[in-house]
Write a structure and sequence with these properties.
The protein is mainly alpha-helical. The protein has one domain. Helix content is 42%, strand content 10%. The protein is built from 4 helices and 3 strands; from the N terminus they run E-H-H-E-H-H-E. The longest helix is centred in the N-terminal third of the chain and has 12 residues, at 24-35. It starts with a strand and ends in a 22-residue tail after the last strand.
């Protein structure tokens, strides 16, 4: 199963629930899930996060393959992502 994060869940976790200075292991585990292709976010999330240019934006954009085109989240596209996108399990 692949999980898709939205902007509000990232902001809430980063600023309130799992602040990286208090819960660094939470963010290391999220990074591992991203690297394994289990967690993604759409390019729209990247656009929304870019409005602040803060530590969360820097962290998120440093994660390779985290942001995917929103078209890949539609049901008819989930079974066949483009060949340039390598997501384990698809």
């Amino acid at each position: 199963m692949i999980y898709s994060f939205d902007t509000s869940s990232l902001i809430e976790a980063w600023q309130e629930t799992y602040a990286p200075d208090v819960f660094p292991s939470f963010w290391r585990n999220i990074e591992k899930l991203i690297q394994g292709g289990m967690v993604v976010a759409t390019d729209e999330v990247k656009l929304e996060l870019s409005q602040e240019q803060d530590a969360l934006f820097k962290w998120a954009t440093a994660q390779r393959n985290f942001f995917i085109p929103i078209a890949l989240t539609t049901p008819y596209n989930r079974r066949s992502p483009p060949s340039w996108l390598s997501i384990p399990g698809w």
